[in-house]
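Re: that backbone. Tokens:
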């Protein structure tokens, strides 16, 4: 039986709320499709460095996990995000700002 998936807009709102509970600032910088848009999370460590995470699906096992799409200077990560948006107009982009690198994507309910 296929696993039910949350609508993207609902997941984003839940993620932003979870981050706010830990006093981690986060912003929607690109609003994607509310129902089925892919989600990209940019972690800005406020020191000129950043990472971009995307959720990957393993077709063999059906498992989902967050993988690093880009890692490096914020300008390089932004360029990678811009390329992704150029071919996926339904893409959500969430920017998380945390000097210690917290993003909570490995937490229960967010990791898969």
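Recovered sequence:
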């Amino acid at each position: 039986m296929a696993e039910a998936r949350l609508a993207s807009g609902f997941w984003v709102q839940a993620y932003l709320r979870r981050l706010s509970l830990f006093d981690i600032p986060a912003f929607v910088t690109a609003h994607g499709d509310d129902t089925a848009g892919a989600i990209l999370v940019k972690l800005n460590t406020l020191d000129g460095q950043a990472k971009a995470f995307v959720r990957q699906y393993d077709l063999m096992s059906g498992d989902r996990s967050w993988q690093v799409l880009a890692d490096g200077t914020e300008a390089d990560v932004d360029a990678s995000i811009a390329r992704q948006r150029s071919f996926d107009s339904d893409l959500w982009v969430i920017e998380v700002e945390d000097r210690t690198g917290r993003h909570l994507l490995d937490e229960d309910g967010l990791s898969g």
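The radius of gyration is 14 Å. Helices lie at 8-21, 74-87.
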